[in-house]
Structures are given as structure tokens and as C-alpha cells.
């Protein structure tokens, strides 16, 4: 099931895991330590300003009002105003510095994660769905935003507040402190129950959010199909049901919070009542002064709010730690295809030497003991039934994967020893469907070579015979293609993909069924462009169409992961084997 952010029940981390994840996050935040230290200083200053106020009030009552000393009272009032103003200004600064450090950390984490994902090989994307990766980059990082933007601020402020407040209270009267703390066992028991109940409630909320967004996403993405079959009402009913479940989970979480906050508030009232009662008795015995009781009551009002905040922060920390753990799993994944020290030569033979391949976490081999030598400038067609391993072999030849056994070399250099830059310049893959990014035609061709001039782009388009077609557009090669190239036809999108390859000018061209998704009319245009692009280059063609295959110098028949036959079209037809059967089937499928 698709989930957007949050953690599910099986995503909970134990205390040791949580601490380990948070320690690693703290190490990653090292570049922001100056900002964090400044924030901590302002948090301490703000806390002192908040707590010294009641102490000054108590002093002013005892030594100013009761003693009828106007000078002391005036000084106490001025000191109180100064302390409050300093505390207010410090609170503003602590908010700015904490958010600056938090946003900086999130920004660096987003960039680091995106950069790491971009460097992964195709095997990584076989294991992770794009929706999961997007969720990690968005929802999981946003869930950490709660912690780093305000959670840490509240956590540190709450700890400072509790420690300093208790210290001041003990300094003023240990008797009143003990009386006020009589309610703490009830708060501790209630806090533990709240942590347990709220964790379950908030997890349910996040799960329902994921379900609701999934319904929304499918309803919008599939609106054409929905309207085509008049299923708007059914889709709305499904969304209403999902939305109702989300509403109920929110209500449950609110109920959990309500009883706990009510409990803490009630305990605060009891603690205040105990303080006033015990304080009045101690004042009557001349053990303490009335100003101390007033200061004590004011300090108590500041003490119970951070207790609530610490309990709430428990779930935030757990959720953020789980999100960080998922991100760290991605960041710890090393690319399976990494560059070597050698540059590939400009020309040479492509040699496949006894390779075998199996996808990770699978037992069955996709390819077994395949050996082929492709001469410089030769065209090799890979044919065979669906699932035989043709596309996998082509991807191995381009080193999108590495073989499990054996080796593939170009010009005498093992592809695993080649630098990735020289590899991608010498060997280029044209996929079945040309993916276009938002931007212009020129921007999309320039993907293959950053910094290419418009003249170079026009030369690449002209090399495949597509320049005149795109120059006919109102804005020429600067025409916006819109999202996923929706402004262009399927054939035009593939022409842009071929122009990218022409811009790189590779030695080896790998075509993975580059015309299989096109209609016959468009296919002729793209095939003409392909013919120009293939001229003078070593070409590996994965194809199902006889017209493409017959132009190849040799044909390799892949069946059940093995090289079954290898030769020219005429040779293989004469052998009467697998290729002859495939060729006969293709001939019969042609219109008469």
C-alpha cells in the first residue's frame, strides 16, 4: 500500500535504535553547530527571563510592599520590566536561530539524498518504487521538520525550564517544593499512558492520510478513465469513505490529547492549591514570607506546561527517528555500478565474454554463459521471445548493470574499469520511450551535453533529419514541450531522444526497441532518423520487427537466457532453427 509519510506499526524503533539514529543526525548537523549554540544561548537567556520574573515579584512584595519601601519596590518593578523585555527579545532570537539551523539541516539532507539517489544504478530503482522515494524526499523529511523546526526548541526550553524552576523552588522553600511535587506520580503515570495511546492514534492518522492521498491521487490521475465509464459517483463514494476514516482517526487522536492535557491542568490546580494551603500555614508560623508563596505559585504555573510538551515530543522524536532511519537506509546504499580509473578508447570491439546475470534477491538467472564479439561499426540485432533476456543483455552491454559472472569489454578495457564519463560518452542507450522533461525541445536535447550551444543542438537534430520538422514550430527548437512532452507526438518525442544520442556522438548505440511503441506512419520517420544515427557506429538493436532486424549485419537469438543462435538473416533462416520460426511468424503477420 502506498503511504505518504509517517510510520506504520512495523516501523517503530526501539530505544537503542532511536538513540543511534539521533546521534547520527546530530553528527550530520555539525556544520550548523555555531547556529545551534547561539540558539541554545538564547533559549537559556529566555528561560532565565521567564523564571526570574516570579522571583523578582516575590522580592518586591516582601521587601517593597510589605516593608513599605518605595525604593525597593521601584527597583523591583524596573528589574522585572528589564528581565521580561530581555526574555522576550531572547525568545524571538532563539526562534530565528533554531529555525535557521533546522531549515539548513533539512535543506542539506534533501540535497544529499537527491544527489545520492541520482548516482544509484538501475538495480536500486528496481528495489525502490518511485512513489516510495518521493515519499522519503517529501513526507519523511517534512515529518522531521516538526522536530528540527519547533520540537528541538521546545525540548531544550522545557528541560531548561524544569531544571531551573525546580532549583529556584528548592532554594525558596523545600517544604513547598515537596508539597507541589506530590502530584507528580499521577502526571508520570498519565504521561506514560498518553505516550502509548497517542503513538497508536497518531500512527493511525498517518496511515489514514496515506490512504486518503492515494485515493485522491488515483482519482485525479485516472480521471479520463473514470469519466469514460461514468464512474464519478463511485470514485466520490470511495473518497468519502476514506475521508471519513481519516476524520475518525483525527477525532480519536484529539480525544487522547484532551484527557491528558486536562489531567495535567487538573494536577497543576491541585499543586497550586497545596502550595497556597501549605504556604499559608508556613507564613502563619513565620517560616516563610508571603512573597515567597506568591513567587512559588507563579513558578508552578510555568512548570506544568513543559511537562505536557515533553510528553508530546516523545511521539515527534519517535516519528522523526523512524523517518531518519528510512533515509539513512537509502544513504547507506552504495551504487552497484561505480566508475573505474580508465578512459574507454574512441573505437573498438565490444566483447561479451561468458557473462551470466541474476537480479538481486532472486535465485533464477536471467542470462547464462553468453559470449558475443561485436565488431567496430557492426550492427547486431537481439531477438527472441518476450522475457528471454534481450533487454537485460543490452543493458549489460551499456553497463547499466554489471554481470554476475563474466566480463564485458570495449576496445580491450573492461567496462568495470572505465570512468563513468567516458563510458556514457562512448556507449549511449536510446530507450523504448523517450522521456522528456519540462522545458523546451532545446533543453531536452541539451540533457545529453550540458552547455551545448544552440548551433550544436541544431547539428544534432539535422544529423538525424529532424531539424526541419522542429524548426516549423512557431518557436522552433525553443518550443515548450509541456509536462512529459505532451505537446509532441510519440514519434517527435523519440526524435528528441535520438537527437540526444547524436549530440553525444557515441561509438556504441544501444537501441532498446526504440520503435516498438510507434504507429506505422511515425515508425517510418523514426526509422529514417535511426538509420542516419546508426551509420558508422557499433549498434546493438533489441527489436521485434523484421524490417529492423533484416538490416543488421548479424542476429543473436536469445532464448531462456542463453545465446541460442548467431549469424546473418540468411544463415539463420537456412538453419531452420528458432530464428527461422520467428521469421516465418513475422512474415505471416504482415498484411497481404
Describe this structure in words.
This protein is 64% helix and 9% strand. The protein folds into three domains: 184 residues, ABC transporter type 1, transmembrane domain (ABC transporter transmembrane region fold, Up-down Bundle), CATH 1.20.1560; 114 residues; 240 residues, P-loop containing nucleotide triphosphate hydrolases (Rossmann fold, 3-Layer(aba) Sandwich), CATH 3.40.50. It is an alpha/beta fold and 592 residues long. The protein has a six-stranded mixed beta sheet, with helices on both faces. A four-stranded antiparallel beta sheet has the order 2-1-4-5, covered by helices on one side. The longest helix has 53 residues. The N terminus is likely disordered. The protein is built from 20 helices and ten strands.
Defining key terms:
592 residues, ABC transporter transmembrane region fold, Rossmann fold, 4-stranded antiparallel β-sheet, elongated
| Strand fraction | 5-15%
Overall spatial form = elongated
* Count of domain modules: 3
Oligomer description? single chain
User: How do the strands of the widest beta sheet line up side by side?
Assistant: 6-7-8-3-9-10
Question: What is the structural class?
Answer: alpha/beta
Could you name the CATH topology of the largest domain? Rossmann fold
For the record, the CATH architecture of the largest domain stands as 3-Layer(aba) Sandwich
The gyration radius over C-alpha positions equals 35 Å
Q: Helical segment tally?
A: 20
